[in-house]
Amino acid sequence: MANPTPARPNPTRKVLxxxxxxxxxxxxxxxxxxxxxxxxKMAHEMPSVGxxxxxxxxxxxxxxxxxxAGKPRAMFFGFTYCxxxxxxxxxxxxxxxxxxxxxxxxxxxxxVSIDPERDTPQLIKDYLSAFDPRITGLTGSVQQVDAIKxxxxxxxxxVPTEDGDYTMDHTAGVYLFDKNGTFAGTVDYTEPAETAVKxxxxxxx
Length: 205
Ligand code: NI
Fold this sequence. Notes:
Layout: H1 11-44, E1 54-57, E2 62-64, E3 73-78, H2 85-100, E4 108-113, H3 121-128, E5 135-139, H4 142-151, E6 156-160, E7 166-170, E8 174-177, E9 183-187, H5 193-204
Parallel strand pairs: 3-4, 4-5
Antiparallel strand pairs: 1-2, 1-5, 3-8, 6-7, 8-9
């Protein structure tokens, strides 16, 4: 019985391997090219979150980002008629403030209305009186609120209700900014207090 012929390099297979290597190399080069040109540029053109704003405080006074200069900020957006997300977040903020102890003095918590047509300064003041007094409430003209929504990448939209009124669909979560006003991430809606406080402490340093 003859032994099977020992395997010899198969020229066809070799060509296929070289072909595969060339394709992989080209794909790799293409990805690098995309990253260095389009992708890289795109990453740098990512819209930033935050920046200057001008709004109205609960005493009817003008309040701007400059009033918080040099202090870290935690900002959240909602409306006083909100049935669930806003009261829950405001109660959570109270819990975080207590957990922060003395460190709470080093950060400002700001509630911004995204329903300026209904949320007057007085209404915001009355509404916030049920929560931690260290929370700053802000509203504004429709134009002022539109501007901060745009610059802070906040989604908010009127949703008609059956009774002819409306509610607001809006971004949940708390936006954190360091003392330079640089966006430093978010605390998610109903995030456990333990991780929320850790995130807040991180922007204090
Ligand atoms: Ni809400």
